[in-house]
């Protein structure tokens, strides 16, 4: 199965459409980790499951979201209320409490993925305003492919190209 994870578009709705319709049209789930600056009832959220970010002002967005897939439980939040600028400890604890296999977040605009026990913690980076070491990629999103034995995370640039050197496969 394949999940698509995007965050921090800051008003760039077109990139969300392009990813879902042209680059990743056959994914099993689409997740949006906040800071869209769009209303919660925007039609793009018929495709993407969103959470609120610190730049989303529609109270209809949830702070967190969980989703279940066969063999995988997802916990998602933006991260601004989980202190992710300083530590992932609060977020990891929330993921454990949700019994998540995969924790998704944004906010920092910096891509990253790591494993804590058997839980994968993933920030797809900002598709529109990247920061940090990988800012020269000009924006990223992530795909997560999983089965009962592995979880593989790939980062993609705005034009859909896989950044091979960042691909990580985790044993479950």
Annotate the secondary structure layout.
Blueprint: E1 2-6, H1 13-23, E2 29-32, E3 49-50, E4 64-69, E5 72-77, H2 89-97, E6 102-104, E7 112-116, E8 119-123, E9 140-146, E10 150-157, E11 168-171
Gist of the model:
The chain has 172 residues and is mostly beta strands. The protein has 2 helices and 11 strands. The chain has helices at residues 13-23, 89-97; strands spanning 2-6, 29-32, 49-50, 64-69, 72-77, 102-104, 112-116, 119-123, 140-146, 150-157, 168-171.
Structure description:
The strands form two sheets. This protein has a six-stranded mixed β-sheet with strand order 3-2-1-9-10-11, with no helix packed on it. A five-stranded mixed β-sheet has the order 4-5-6-8-7, with helices on one face. It starts with a strand and ends with a strand. The mean pLDDT is 97. It has a single domain, classed as Purple Acid Phosphatase, chain A, domain 2 (4-Layer Sandwich). The protein has two helices and eleven strands, in the order βαββββαββββββ. It has 172 residues and is mainly beta.
What's the number of structural domains?
1
Widest beta sheet: strand line-up: 3-2-1-9-10-11
CA radius of gyration is: 14 Å
Distance between the termini: 15 Å
Assigned CATH superfamily = Metallo-dependent phosphatases
Question: Averaged pLDDT, please?
Answer: 97
Name the overall outline: globular
CATH topology: Purple Acid Phosphatase, chain A, domain 2
Stretches where pLDDT is under 50 for at least 5 consecutive residues are none
SS summary, helix count: 2
**Quick one: biggest sheet?**
6 strands, mixed
In the CATH hierarchy, the architecture is 4-Layer Sandwich
Structural class: mainly beta
CATH uppermost class: Alpha Beta
Cofactor: a divalent metal cation
Domain Calcineurin-like phosphoesterase: 1-148
Family: Belongs to the metallophosphoesterase superfamily. YfcE family.
Protein name: Phosphoesterase
